[in-house]
Amino acid sequence: MTSTLSREHSIEIVGSSVKAVEIADDPADVVLVDVPATADDPADTAPVDVPAEPTNLVGSLKLLARSLCDDIHRRALEVLKPDPLACFDVDPAGYDNKMFSPEELWEEVLNGAMKNGLDGNNLGRTFPPKRAKCEGYIITLPANSSPYALYPVGLHLSHTLPWTFEFQINQIIFRAWSCKKFTAAGSHACSNCIALAEHGMLKGIVTRLVDGVNENAGYAFHGTLGLLEILRRKDKQISHLRTKALTQARIILTRSAALDGFKRFMVAIASAKAGNVERLVRVALKQNRSIRAILELYHRAAEGIYHPKSFSEEDDMRGLIAGIASRALGLPALTTLRNRAIMPPLIPSHSTPAVSEVTKNIDACFESIGEILASRKVVHQVLMFDEIATEKRIRWDDHTNNFLGVCREHGKRTALEFSTVDDMKELFNCLETGEATVAALGLLGEDTRIYAGRPILISGDCKRETGAEHAKVIQTVFDAADGLKEKTGLRIVSIASDGETRRGASLVQMTFKKQLEETSPIYEILKDLTFMDFHTGNDDVTADKDWKHVDKRIRNYAIRARGIVIRDFRITPAIIINHLKSEGHSAVHINSLFQPDDSQDVKLAFDLLKDIWTLPMLSTHSNPSFLAARHALCTLGKLLYHIIFPYLCTELSLSEQLEHLSAAAHLALVLYYDNGKDFMPTLLYQDLAIMIKNVFFCVAKAKIDDPNGKFFVILLGTDRLEELFGILRTMVGNDSNLDIYQLASRLTGTTQVSNILAKYPQWDRAPRRLKLPAITRSSETLPDTVDHIKPASWKGDVYVKNVTLLTAWRRGRHLVEKDCSFAAPILEALEQKGSHHILAPRGKLLFRLTPEEAGEDDSLDLEEISRPHRPSAISDELDDNRVEIEDSFVEQDHGDTVLSQTADSGRKFDRHIEFEGMRMLKSRALSLYSKRLGKDGPSSTDRLKRVQEVERYAGSTPLSSAYGTTPSSVSQPLLVIQDPVATVVRCQDHLFLCIGEVNGIKINSDSAITAVPQADLYELEKITVSIQVLGLRPSTSDDDISLQNDWRSYRIKELTLHVPGKYIQAMDPEFVSRGIGQMFYLFQGTFLVGLAAMILGQLTSNNIKELARIPHTDNFPYREHTGTILQPYCY
Length: 1131
Known about the structure:
Blueprint: E1 2-4, E2 9-14, E3 17-22, E4 31-36, H1 57-79, H2 102-117, E5 137-140, H3 147-150, H4 155-158, E6 163-167, E7 171-176, H5 191-195, H6 200-211, H7 224-243, H8 245-256, H9 261-271, H10 277-286, H11 291-302, H12 323-328, H13 334-339, H14 355-366, H15 370-375, E8 380-389, E9 395-397, E10 402-404, H16 421-427, E11 435-443, E12 454-461, H17 467-483, H18 485-488, E13 491-497, H19 501-511, E14 514-515, H20 523-526, E15 535-536, E16 542-545, H21 547-558, E17 564-566, E18 569-571, H22 573-582, H23 587-594, H24 602-613, H25 624-648, H26 654-675, H27 682-705, H28 719-731, H29 740-759, H30 805-819, H31 823-833, H32 851-854, H33 873-894, E19 899-901, E20 908-910, E21 912-915, E22 918-921, H34 922-933, H35 941-947, E23 974-976, E24 980-987, E25 990-1003, E26 1006-1009, E27 1011-1013, H36 1014-1019, E28 1023-1034, E29 1047-1060, E30 1065-1066, E31 1070-1073, E32 1079-1083, H37 1085-1097, H38 1101-1104, E33 1129-1130
Parallel strand pairs: 8-13, 13-16
Antiparallel strand pairs: 1-2, 2-3, 3-4, 5-7, 6-7, 8-11, 9-10, 11-12, 14-15, 17-18, 19-20, 21-22, 23-27, 24-25, 24-30, 25-26, 25-28, 25-33, 28-29, 29-32, 31-32
Helix pairs in contact: 8-37, 9-11, 10-11, 14-17, 17-19, 21-24, 21-27, 23-24, 24-25, 25-26, 26-27, 26-30, 28-29
């Protein structure tokens, strides 16, 4: 309760306290002074004893103040009623409000509360006048204008505008977010609302409210009336387009046209593949050439076959090395060599191999190099298996009196000992062999003198054995070699083979018998290798696959039409060709890689794989599909690099080699887990994993058995057996294939040569076809003076004591996770599951998959097209003479001897037989009988081609003569690899529009086409276009800032369709690139509808049956943002 004392003061009593209030002109200047009360009732107030007069000024002032307070309190109690202010006995903090300034808090809150407490009784105090409320910034619209129709409400969604708005009949009231609620002096609005008049966005809105909105402005700047007008115009435009078929067709044809020649010419010049462009253009313009002709000249100049001044061509003739002639000069006669043999002849197995035969062959191979082995510490060896083609010719072995040339699978059907003529006649009712299985031992050591492979098994084969039957053959050879371990001091650490499927199944039976036991010496070294497979055989033996065969098979698979899938992107041969051309590789070079004259040429396979891994990640090309393909190719290149590099870079240490192989294992595991057999055939991936696993196991065994020794990864595999086969082919001149008898005698000779080269290693020369160049760390090829890579040429540190397998294995994983960001989460997830490893990438061992689960492996060999050749009477006569000469040498060796002894048991047998009334050598009788039956003629087509000077493999059509070697090779619009296209497909008995990118063009059986004229798509029936399907979804303002397009593409899980060319329509849409993996096309809905209608208009009822089918998925058919499937076309 307040009492007025004067114009300048008032008092307030709260409970037992009295406050003197000094009121100034401004309410904010009110000052409260506490004055203690003496009593509740005046009657109870006791007289106050007045002290004596003070003696100083301070005391006088204190006495005066106390007297004044008592007087004020007494006078207040006289005029006020008891407890009138009890309602104000509350906490003052409750009146605080952060939304008000101090002045507004007094006016709006405190003063009002006091008035309510006093029940409207004014005790004489004069309150400050109230201020008017802020009316905001008011805009008055022209007459007959409605703010509901004109104001652009949509701007508040796309922009942050610092005001709110309110609509009146013809007015819009704007209030600032920071409105003070009360007016400023002499104004109807507060200062913050008045400041809105200078805001740029609001000034623009006011201007457009008065003058109107430009029709090209964005939708957000239009009011409701403007948007309705735009919709009416759009509806009218759509209706007009629908009714005007001719205009619609022109729009579709304009947008669906392929990239024109000028765009291609600009891209070509930017690539800087050819110099003197201005000179080339000047000459072409003088000749009145078109833009496509100029582009063709540019590509020819880039390939080095055209020059503006003069024409020059590269000399395609290459000199042949005269190695055969040099080896032929000065050699002793055959009889002299046979008499001076330094080792006994090898024994071929006429039927199922026996341990005794293999044991004798091992003794024969190692007897002459025993001193070298004793001087060198060699503890490990590799058992190698491979096949070599042989002539289907029956021969008589004069050492055993047995027939040779019958396969071991069917030899048990008849007697193989040549005792009577009936034995010979019965023999020809059995099948003959077409190949021979050869097993050899290869020592693991750095001494070049013992480098060569030494054959210990020669056995006819018709490839009809089962895996279990073939495993018995391998086990026989393994037992024979293992039985001589104490004598030779050599331990077999791995059994190596190429990619032959039957032997692969046999090796699984032998080397996947059990898990690595904890008692094994190598267990502690290998146990912590995550994702490693630990299956082994007896004595911890493991299987191995030759790395060169793995590389060739990867090359074979890469150039197959089906291609390789990397991260849901299918890389076809045409895509690889397109990218190699973009990096300046010539057509001649590309043709040699994709259509090799010799499919077994390892060097060509290496060249292709190296060209892939050296592709740069960055490209000047702007096509989003091209850039996505380059990203996938670079991922594939990283895998190829880690597989091949450790075998060819002689500067790497053993630890670095293991790191690369570990990286290859981890990256292959991720890619196979991601795309399965579409990434790589299951058998090929399995062989790659087995190869890498064997390297780590062999190094672990070397650390235990020879901790101070060296280990050479290049000695693993069947490389030395392949070298042996190459030497055999050079030994027999123009006869590329041999029969079993010749094979045994030549292998005896090659083993003698190997033992000689053990003493004279400088005489050694590797076969040309097996020669691979050594490379540096920067992938640069070393000079040609570097011969076939051998242990002596390796420069890196290969001591096993300097290697920690766990460290190398983990560093390889880190390499993959660093280079391929997508790999890390996949590897972490697989590691947590615990059931995945390199031979079970999806949780199940690969060799336990069903044929349907594993799929076909078409990487084992390239299809070879036989070339017609003329029969050669000369070659037949030479072959007959060669056999007769060999038989005559046998006759000369034994002279008039009638009886001979078998090499194995010493049992005597007659060398002659009675045939057609004449006594003759058994070899002669066998030859005559074979001719009579017509079974003596050679069956090796390779030999016939050599005699006629025809290359071994059929010649191929150069890519330059096929479609699209250069996209400018024809003067018509072209469809080029990775161009965007559209087609119509069938899905659940409906037709739908499908958008995709070209990843392959096939004409007849030729799939290495990179471009084709668009006109030919409709005229030629045998053109098939492969497209990778793209997803399609509604676009947003972030996708298309101009808001001109309704749809955008995106990548989905890999799905490739093979569509007849006549159902393909090329397009030239707008595309957006925001970096690798963020590139897409933009489409207008009207264009897509018209495009589908045009393609459907060309179809008949019979054509519909030829359309490609596509399964129903989450990404197809295409859907609107609501999830509604776009309206299909029923049929």
